[in-house]
Amino acid sequence: MKQILACIVLIFLCQDSLVAQNARTIKVSELEAILKAKTDKIQVINFWATWCAPCVKEMPIFEKANIDITEAKVTLISLDLNLDPAPEKVYRFIERKKLASTVFLLDEPDPNFWIDKIDKRWSGALPATLVLNTKTGKRQFVEHELVEGELESLIATVK
Amino acid sequence: MILVIAMASIQSTKKGYEVGDVVRDFNLKNVEGKQVSLSNYKDAKGFIVIFDCNSCPVSKLYNKRIQALHKKYSSSGFPVVAINANDAEKSPEDSYEQMVKEAKAKEYEFAYLYDQSQEVAHAFGATNTPQAFILVKKDAALKVAYIGAIDNNARDESKAEKKYVENAVDALLKNQPFSITKTKAIGCGIGWKDA
């Protein structure tokens, strides 16, 4: 019985740490490093929050792209910490939606200081998506809920 | 010819007002069912126009701060005029009926206007809620003096060390220049109608 209990506890602990590991908290400098690092994959960076209804609505598009579009790397940047210091809501969301894409929680106050570092076209509105070819520097930035097929077109234009 | 095309493309990509632009007056319905224009405010020296809504969590965090701005500055000539432009089909919580309820429940003292056609939001180039446009009267024209965030900390007002809107209005009231005329903040994208 004790062993079973220990096993259950262990499973829970592991799951917890997996989620926590998946949704690491980062600073904007780390995000800038991701944007600068030259990789073979097209970087698809989506800015979202659990409180943003259109973000939640378009999330399946990114989750599908993460699996189906092998030439792209999807990263979901949560801005929840901007409104609420507790990350648990995001962890629960990741678990509930079984998100497989990489999720980071951006922990930066003072958005006016860093929004332009991501893209000068970004007003700060959510949802927003950056599609970037780090090798050529070609980039697309959109500030609305994506429609079916839009992400594929964006990726095609930066190839 | 090339120049004409280039000019045309610049025109079409320009979205809304920039700081220094002259603002065209508008006519929108308030939560009492009356049509409101900026020209109705005979004594105003300017306005704190805020694109806002009921549903956005960022707007909710700023709600008290917006009420406080109106309390602080309306008597000195800079009233708050809040405008909700969200498409009610996309965001039912932002319908006109819900605006009326919200304004009553929270005892709004400032005008809360409904931009159903989204024409005013497009004219301003509003992008997200809450987003402030400070307008100042100069030679009978209204000019944009500031565009952006209310302050630099949505989460915690006590930690907002840069009070952009207050600094701008304080400077305008003293006829002094101010350096930060445009800022950005994380907000809810305006729920535009499908084209």
Topology:
The complex is a heterodimer of chains A (159) and B (195).
Chain A: H1 2-22, E1 23-26, H2 28-36, E2 42-48, H3 53-68, E3 72-78, H4 88-97, E4 102-106, H5 111-118, E5 125-126, E6 128-133, E7 139-142, H6 150-158
Parallel strand pairs in A: 1-4, 2-3, 3-4
Antiparallel strand pairs in A: 2-6, 6-7
Chain B: H1 2-13, E1 28-30, E2 35-36, E3 46-51, H2 57-73, E4 80-84, H3 96-105, E5 111-114, H4 119-124, E6 128-129, E7 131-138, E8 141-148, H5 164-173, E9 187-189
Explained architecture:
- The complex is a heterodimer of chains A (159) and B (195).
- With 159 residues, chain A is α/β, with parallel strands linked by helices.
- Chain A has one domain (24-158): Glutaredoxin (3-Layer(aba) Sandwich), CATH 3.40.30.10.
- Chain A is built from six helices and seven strands.
- Chain A has helices at 2-22, 28-36, 53-68, 88-97, 111-118, 150-158, and strands spanning 23-26, 42-48, 72-78, 102-106, 125-126, 128-133, 139-142.
- The longest helix of chain A is centred in the first third of the chain and has 21 residues, at 2-22.
- The termini of chain A are far apart.
- The relative contact order of chain A is 0.20.
- In chain B, strand 3, helix 2 (57-73) and strand 4 form a beta-alpha-beta unit.
- Chain B is globular and about 45 Å long.
- With 195 residues, chain B is an alpha+beta fold.
- A seven-stranded mixed β-sheet of chain B has the order 2-1-5-4-3-7-8, with helices on one face. Chain B has a two-stranded antiparallel ribbon with strand order 6-9.
- Chain B has one domain: 3-Layer(aba) Sandwich (Glutaredoxin).
- Chain A binds chain B through residues 49, 51-54, 79, 81-85, 109-113, 115-116, 122-128, 143-145, and chain B through 55, 57-58, 61, 90-91, 127-128, 148-149, 152-155, 159, 162, 183-192.
- Strand 5 (125-126) of chain A pairs parallel with strand 9 of chain B.
